[in-house]
UniProtKB/TrEMBL annotation, chain B:
This is ATP-binding cassette domain-containing protein. Gene3D superfamilies: P-loop containing nucleotide triphosphate hydrolases. The keyword Transport applies. It is a peripheral membrane protein. Keywords: ATP-binding, Cell membrane, Membrane, Nucleotide-binding, Transport. It comes from Micromonospora echinofusca.
Length: 324, 324
């Protein structure tokens, strides 16, 4: 059961796709994750590891094949986006591609009003739209324009205004700034973080940009091939990663320095989830793989953080091997 | 020695009310075997610069200035001239690998076609080299990969295949337009390592376009920062990014996640770059610049030497403190 401290609770969730001719693809293979009010949880991992699949079931756009999702203590059930119960509009999503959430043929104002709850009179409605636009740093005149009349960064802000319209308590943002350049990224991210702090919302921030997540998330979860391999307070994760995959991700972030230094590539290819390796899923690419890794490592509590790697188990790990 | 020498390149594209100036007197140089970076916000003219070097500008574009490749003037070439340059001199890798790959043809066919046309190789020699090239870009099992179709590869592998195709005709200069922007850091690290290896092994020169300053720093030795169709600063990448001399370079650096700031305090550059044809009369960065003085408003500042092999286009040249 959810404690009052938990806003969104994802418990042992699995997502399976049945692709024609390929059998079942288990894109999410048992993930648990909590988000508290006022907390930003970052979710990072390579392309195809299952981040969007998890986001879609967490927000109720699709049903998980196993496990449960609870929002504010109540189960999230996919009812179709348009017919959701009033208390479920408290959970909103911002997509990577703002075109996915903005209709090109309708004005921004009309689309914002779709999300405004209850019946308001004409003047009050216009006031509400102006408020929402102001929140995301856009002029009230934007209401009468169409999505294509805005730049990528501006469109993403409008999509955020759209998500804020029903006054949500929790936002799931799936790669909200991946398509933007650094300055527009910073504008949109500051906006999101400011809203979370100001309105005491919860946010699950999905990205494959580790540097960005490092900057804003209170807690970071690292996902690899359908499973969360490490979760820790962001600063600790960055300073002392306990899982070799987390270490590889951090090493691959290009850094600015006075002399060119290439980031370290990770060996091997991202495996196909329909054909996941046995034992530890990272084993074929792991520089530290050793005997016990033929068995799936359990997720172990390491005191305020957790990891799923045999190296963290002192009873089996060789003394010399360490993830960091 | 300069392999590519661009001087005063200006490009105007047809607009609703007459030609819209987009590039304003861009000068840049790439030496043999050199890795050069080009950076700047979205819309600043990076891709258009690349397109003018390959004769790929949209119809109706007006071009002035000069661009010499290995001594040959490129601007004003006829169709056959461009074909020769694109065949064996300059090759390009695009941001979206699917744009460069034909979905219905095997990877081997796409690789060998190029070699048979431009290098007049026979089928057997071309096949052998196709396998070699795929091996060079670290595609596993290249003998099998030549018979595969693009959709059978992951995003990172497709981008490496696109690089192999660009290299097929043995170019001396590779223009890579954001080839890793859509990829994960781990896959990106592999592609950066590949380009660096090709430079070391074959003397390939690379002009690498990106808006990620971390990528610029880790791969390239010299860099150009573009703003609103102009080069505003250039120099050895290490110095450029650790001790910038132009307020725009400093502001771009400031907008990146640093991992050293308090949570949620990215520093975006206020506002956005001017739309083509709407730049203010003086320094194009003036409306967003924290160091602007009245003297900035008269004319766009010229690029002037500010140190060994370094230039900046700023009349004030403030003392810049940057956190890197
Ligand atoms: N509708 C679908 N049918 C079948 N397979 C799917 C479907 N959607 C996703 N997948 C597969 O599930 C896996 C996880 O996909 P998902 O989109 O969740 O990844 P992601 O982590 O969001 O990746 P990215 O960073 O590229 O967005 C991938 O292997 C993908 O090919
Ligand atoms: N075919 C075109 N017709 C009209 N304007 C164009 C065309 N292509 C580009 N432009 C304009 O020229 C300017 C420079 O575009 P360019 O594509 O070179 O930018 P960029 O620096 O590559 O940006 P990005 O980082 O988004 O790829 C932009 O303002 C763009 O809107
Ligand atoms: S369990 Fe073994 S293979 Fe998996 S990450 Fe840890 S050391 Fe590597
Ligand atoms: S010339 Fe003036 S406005 Fe332009 S960058 Fe320098 S200080 Fe700023
Ligand atoms: Mg996704
Ligand atoms: Mg471009």
């Amino acid at each position: 059961m959810s404690t009052p401290e938990t806003l969104l609770r994802i418990d042992d969730v699995e997502v399976e796709y049945r692709a024609r001719g390929r059998g079942a693809v288990r894109a999410v293979a048992g993930v648990s994750l909590d988000v508290a009010p006022g907390q930003i949880v970052g979710l990072v991992g390579e392309s195809g590891c299952g981040k969007s699949s998890l986001a879609r079931v967490a927000v109720g756009l699709a049903a998980p094949s196993a496990g449960t999702i609870r929002f504010a203590g109540r189960p999230v059930t996919p009812l179709g986006w348009r017919r959701r119960a009033d208390d479920e509009v408290g959970l909103q999503m911002v997509f990577q591609n703002p075109y996915a959430s903005l209709n090109p043929r309708r004005t921004i104002g009309d689309q914002l009003l779709d999300g405004v709850p209850g019946q308001l009179g004409g003047a009050a409605r216009r006031g509400r739209v102006a408020d929402l636009l102001d929140r995301v740093g856009m002029p009230a005149t934007a209401a009468d324009r169409y999505p294509h009349q805005f730049s990528g960064g501006q469109r993403q802000r409008l999509a955020i205004a759209r998500a804020l319209a029903p006054e949500p308590r929790m936002i799931i943002a799936d790669e909200p700034v991946t398509a933007l350049d650094a300055s527009s990224q910073a504008q949109v991210v500051n906006l999101l973080v400011g809203l979370v702090r100001e309105l005491d919302m919860g946010m699950l921030f999905i990205s494959h940009d580790l540097a960005l997540v490092h900057e804003i998330a209170d807690v970071t979860a690292v996902m690899y091939l359908g499973k969360i391999v490490e979760t820790a307070p962001t600063r600790e994760l960055w300073r002392a990663p306990r899982h070799p995959y987390t270490r590889a991700l951090i090493d691959a972030v290009p850094q600015i320095s006075a002399t060119p230094t290439l980031p370290k590539p990770l060996a091997g290819e991202v495996p196909d989830p329909s054909n996941a390796p046995t034992g530890c899923r990272f084993r074929p690419r792991c520089p530290h793989a050793f005997d016990p890794c033929g068995t799936q490592p359990p997720t172990v509590d390491l005191g305020g953080r957790s990891a799923a790697c045999w190296l963290t188990d002192p009873t089996v790990a060789p003394a010399t091997a360490a993830a960091s | 020695m300069a392999l590519l020498d661009v001087e005063n390149l200006a490009v105007a594209l047809p607009g609703p009310r007459g030609p819209l100036p987009i590039l304003h007197g861009v000068s840049l140089r790439v030496d043999e075997g050199e890795l050069v970076g080009i950076a700047g916000e979205s819309g600043c003219g990076k891709s258009l610069t690349a397109q003018s070097l390959l004769g790929l500008l949209p119809p109706g574009a007006k071009v002035t200035g000069s661009a010499r490749f290995a001594g040959t003037e490129l601007l004003g070439l006829d169709a056959r001239g461009w074909q020769r340059v694109r065949g064996a001199g300059i090759a390009m890798v695009f941001q979206d690998p699917t744009a460069a790959l034909h979905p219905m043809l095997t990877v081997g066919r796409q690789l060998t076609e190029h070699m048979r046309v431009h290098l007049r190789m026979d089928r057997r020699a071309a096949n052998r080299r196709a396998v070699e090239l795929l091996d060079q870009v670290r595609i596993p099992d290249p003998e099998r990969a030549v018979r595969a179709y693009p959709h059978q590869f992951s995003g990172g592998m497709r981008q490496r295949v696109a690089i192999a195709i660009a290299l097929a005709a043995r170019p001396r200069l590779l223009i890579a337009d954001e080839p890793t922007t859509a990829l994960d850091v781990t896959v990106q690290a592999g592609i950066l390592a590949l380009l660096d290896r090709l430079r070391a092994e074959t003397g390939l020169a690379v002009a690498f376009i990106t808006h990620d300053l971390g990528v610029l720093s880790s791969l390239t030795t010299r860099g150009y920062v573009f703003y609103a169709g102009r080069v505003v600063e250039t120099g050895p990448t290490g110095a450029l990014l650790t001790a910038p001399r132009h307020p725009y370079t400093a502001a771009l650096l400031g907008a990146r996640p640093h991992g050293t700031q308090a949570v949620g305090t990215l520093r975006p550059i206020p506002g956005g770059p001017p739309a083509p044809g709407e730049a203010p009369p003086g320094c194009p960065f003036q409306p967003r610049c924290g160091y602007a003085e009245p003297s900035c408003g008269t004319a766009p500042p010229p690029l002037e030497p500010v140190g060994p092999d370094r230039s900046a286009a700023c009349v004030v040249r403030p003392h810049l403190e940057v956190l890197v």
